[in-house]
Amino acid sequence: MLITNSIVNTKFCVGLSDISDSYVGFIIDQWGVLHNGEIVYDGVIDCLKELQRRKKYVIILSNSGKRADVNAQRLEKLGIPPSLYNSIITSGEVTWQGLNAQTEGYFKNIGKKCVIISRGGDRSIVDGLDIEIVENPKDANFILISGADSPEKTLEDYEPILRQAARYELKAICANPDSLGVMGNQNIMGPGTLAARYKDFGGVVHYIGKPHQPIFQHCIRVLQQNDIYPGQTVMIGDTMAHDILGGHLVNIDTCLVKQGIHKPAFRNCRSLADVDKALDILIRQYNNVRPKYLLDSLVWGRALPDRKHKKRSKR
């Protein structure tokens, strides 16, 4: 059971410069914060340059079902070179490492044969592993969900293979827990939706990625290797369910970016009071977990006078 966040104020920020002096480590979500899958958002590159100039340690954290090097290549094609961050951690990379070792946690002795559900038939998540990909669930030890061909395919298109896998009681590894993703100007179905449907059919699902603690603990270990600790770190993301909740669960301060998944929630806001109301609604929807900061988008910006979102007393 989640405990209500004790932070009672959310600071509205014009840019990351408002809070940059308070932190050494910056964990930044990729999709919805840096880019929309097609273009890098305005101001992002300048913001990353400022963080590097100030010797901040930047981790790009993503629920991508692809490995870290694939994401690095994607970022570079979009215009974000490796010089603008220090590390990339993806749920796909953590999954690959777990399947390679098969010695700990969800991966221990999971088996060598799997059915893969991925975007565009991508199988890079098992490249180089002693894993055999099979088409029929009856021949598999487990099912690996790393992507979804949305919007071309719907949830109903995946139900036959999910039902069959559940019938054979295959454990599922979901290498991307996102229920929704950002593609251009639209939200699309994410692999997390498929995993949830698999659970509806009686299947057992193990999630790798935000908001689940293993991937955040991995980030913390990387930061501690550089003498940076949770109290010196902020998580910046666009989803309450994954970024803000995940940071909360490991006691890392959080910053919600409005332009990603939750952009529709703020669409009709015309004033700070409107933003205040929209944020309150989101907070109530997500177990009363409250971001410490709110940004329109990831820009450097200027200092903002003392404007804070006050938690209103109950009547």
Q: How would you describe this structure in keywords?
A:
single chain; 315 residues; alpha/beta; Rossmann fold; 2 domains; 8-stranded mixed sheet; 29% helix; globular; disordered N terminus; disordered C terminus
Assembly form of the protein: single chain
Query: What structural class do helix, strand and pairing data support?
Result: alpha/beta
- Lateral strand order in the biggest sheet: 4-3-2-12-13-14-1-15
> What is the total tally of β strands?
15
Give a quick account of the main beta sheet: strands, pairing sense, barrel closure: 8 strands, mixed
Strand content: 15-25%
Q: Shape, please?
A: globular
Radius of gyration: 20 Å
CATH architectural designation of the largest domain: 3-Layer(aba) Sandwich
Q: How far is the first residue's CA from the last residue's CA?
A: 25 Å
CATH class of the largest domain equals Alpha Beta
Number of domains: 2
Number of helices: 8
Tell me what you see in this structure.
The protein is an alpha/beta fold and 315 residues long. It folds into 2 domains: 9-63 and 211-310, HAD superfamily/HAD-like (Rossmann fold), CATH 3.40.50.1000; 102-207, Rossmann fold (3-Layer(aba) Sandwich), CATH 3.40.50. Helix content is 29%, strand content 20%. It is built from 8 helices and 15 strands. It has helices at 44-53, 68-78, 91-101, 155-167, 191-200, 213-224, 240-249, 272-285, and strands at 9-13, 25-29, 57-62, 87-90, 113-117, 132-133, 142-145, 171-174, 180-183, 186-189, 204-207, 233-237, 253-257, 293-295, 308-310. The protein has an 8-stranded mixed beta sheet with strand order 4-3-2-12-13-14-1-15, with helices on both faces. Strands 6-5-7-8-11 form a 5-stranded parallel beta sheet, with helices on one face. A two-stranded antiparallel ribbon has the order 9-10. It is globular. Mean pLDDT is 89; it is low at 1-7, 303-307 and 310-315.
